[in-house]
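Appendix B.2, paired examples.
Example (i):
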Amino acid sequence: MSGITPQELNLLIEQTYKVEREFTDLKESYTHLQDTVEKVVEFLPNAIWILDEEGEVFLQNSQAKSLGKLLELLESKNDDYEVSFKKRSYLIKSSSYQDKFMLSATDITEQKRKENLATMGQMAAHLSHEIRNPIGSISLLSSALKKRVIPENIPIVEEIQKSVYRIDRIIKATLMFSKGVEANIAPFMWSELKESIDMAIGYYAYSKEIRFIFPEQKFILNADKDLLEMLFSNFIINAIDAIELDENEEGSVEIVYENDASFHRFYIYDSGIAIENKKELFEAFKSTKEKGNGLGLVLSRQIAEAHGGCVELLKGERKGFEIRIAKQFS
């Protein structure tokens, strides 16, 4: 310590303390910055991985942690690309900075589904337009043929008419889905709608003994009669198909009516097989039955919503749906 004055020693100690304080402040700032970066990364809606030069994970958010196996499939590319993982689609982006490499994975499953639906809707609408004219001709010719054939052949013609009716329903549903539901409101009696529903049931082929129980009350609906006919027909035909698949040789379809100050409430029950894949009930082009086109329930919900109401699956021992139609709406 020779040659160092007390003043110089004090100055050196003060400098040492100053450097230590600056180091502590710098360390706290770095920790704060790191916490901020982690919070920002965690806040992002996509999965983020930041890798070091050895390819090891330096930082990741919780989304990335839940997709750990996905990271093993990713590659470092200059261009964005898509990968499929566990029935989901992800858009992958990458970038590098100094010795760090960042990968992000954004779930685009819903976006792709909507794009596919739009494409399918356009194709289906085009095909429906092409099919509609010949189907109309077959319908007219079968009606004329039914008046001229011998009695023994009438059932054959009626089967043709039922098949044509089924195709016509699919065409109407497809065109409505592609154009959107618009309700033309006018008052009519429930009994008028019931007659149309009975006629639709008559055109639908089924083999079992099915009892149909419909409301006997007299009431007026201020709605679009054609749209409500499609709505109720969709549910009743679904019910018939479910009963046809049931092990019992007979079944029943029941519509119960209630009303309150705001809504006409209809409850549709059937004795058919239970509903599978309830999450996909109201998804377009996804049918829970073998011969469905996946549009019936989607359109039924849209029709109810176009009338200020809704469609809901009932939760309880008895299988059924609730349909609400607003009494007054704009």
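Example (ii):
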Amino acid sequence: MGAGHDHGVRRPGSPGAVRACLAVIVPLAVVTLAALVWMWPDAPKAAGAPSPGMSKIHGKVVGIVLKPCPKQVGLGAEGEPNGTGGTAPPPDPRKCGDAQIELTEGLEKGRVITTPLPSGPGSQRFETGDKVIVLHLADAPGDNPYQLSDHDRSGPLWLVGAAFVLAVVAFGRWRGLTALVGLAVTFVLLLKFLIPAVLAGEPPLAAAIVCAAAIMLAVLYLTHGFTVPTSIAVIGTLASLTLTGLLAWAAIGLTHLSGITDESSFNLDLSYQISTQGLLLASIIIGSLGVLDDVTVTQAVTVGELAHANPAYRFAELYRAGARVGRAHIASVINTIILAYAGASLPLLLLFSIGRQPLGEVLTGSVVAQEIVRSVAGTLGLIAAVPITTALAALARTRNREAEAEVVEEVKPERPRRAPAAEPSFWD
């Protein structure tokens, strides 16, 4: 959200363009604020809190004692067939043994405990010096209530975040700082409004629309300023986002997608009675918003700069020139979207390749078909954003030029008088 486009010198819009933008933006802001207040969820329930018999404690690995790995059922020492039609790999000998961990917080801070290393499939590898998280299970059977859970990533994540902030502020300066504030607003609305509202029983699609509108208004104006090009970008984003939602709704109905493709969506549907179709629509809208605002802001600013560089351009010339820039932008953005979805689904694609399923079955399956619908709906919304925003920006610049021409005709400046010739100086 909130790409750091440089607007250059800000030029005031015509009174007509300002009034037209306000006629759309003000009602939209009022309705969004009212819906945000109305749908804002109450304090989250304690149902999802951890069990009172379990607590997380930070620690540090001070020693590793490796032991021979026990033989698993149906698996030989050399990775023999396990009876499931495949060959399972042998256990990693670096994951078999015990870890000596020094607790760094809690009532037993400084105590060194010994707990088995996780050695199951997909378990992590731990080494001496690693900062870790240990689970304390009060009701655990046996004499050892501690269990090694995960790596402690808080320190590295703070370093990564600090590097990101420094890079954005160093390059973007004031605009980079406002972009970071806009990013914070986005996270607050997603974490404090959208997710709790959906869990509280609000329709996912309605919550996503309100959240997207609030993010769009707050971030675009905060990052790019209260200008006519920003207002045009907001209107273009709203129109394109509406079209994206309608296209996604139609495509989901035509392809009979339920939104249930994995264990997470199944549990949400079973345990919380959340509409998974509505959740799929909500994810498409939120995902499209991040790219739409980049396209619309770019088009609005591009048309404004073209009008300033070529004062003789009329509406048709401005639209054609801006559309050429938009087509080049869309071509690169489409590739970006497809690569992003492919990167996120890479493990799934690998499983399909290993399973040697026919391409037709893979494409028509619910998992891949859902990603295809998501990509197509988002791409069509992006394509529509270019002509919509470009036409609005060209119309606003044309009206602005006409208003400036009327002012020039009404106020004719006096012919400047020629200054008297200066007396020759000594140095002449």
